[in-house]
Amino acid sequence: MFDTARRIMFRPAAALLAALCASACAPAAAQSVGAPSAGSAASTPDNAILLTIFLKHDQSRPLADLNAQLAKQGFYKAFPPQGVEVVSWYVQMGIGQVITVRLPASRLREVNRVLEDTAWGAYRTEFYPTYDYKAVGLAEHEKALR
After folding, report:
1. pTM of the model
2. Burial 24-61 (b: 16+ CB within 10 A, else e)
3. High-pLDDT (> 70) share of the chain, %
4. Fewer CB within 10 Å of terminal CB in the chain, N or C?
5. Are 79 and 37 in contact (CB under 8 A)?
């Protein structure tokens, strides 16, 4: 059970790494400079990744200013892009917003660009490839109790 579950849980991370390596190894001339077009790829078990996004707010500015900037830049119109599933979206006091999304690995750049275009200035962004470990962790816990 554990080995099978681990392979299933690591598959999204492996897909992300493969996508990142492919884009990093492509010649610079082949990469588009403009904003990416909206992707149409749907998440499937074979291509889906989870991405946790930290939107760290600028604590030197009042919340009303940050919200006005987000509205001006179209953040809530553009994020999340259609077809990108929001798994969780929390406010962590003292940090900002923490969002986990599920998306096809091929749409990673699109999500990044949406945030660059609409969230920068109000937030500093951090991205973390994520995978669901709950089933594995709970199975290991149950196994340890026996």
Report:
1. 0.68
2. eeeeeeeeeeeeeeebeeebeeebbbbbebbbbbeeee
3. 70
4. C
5. no
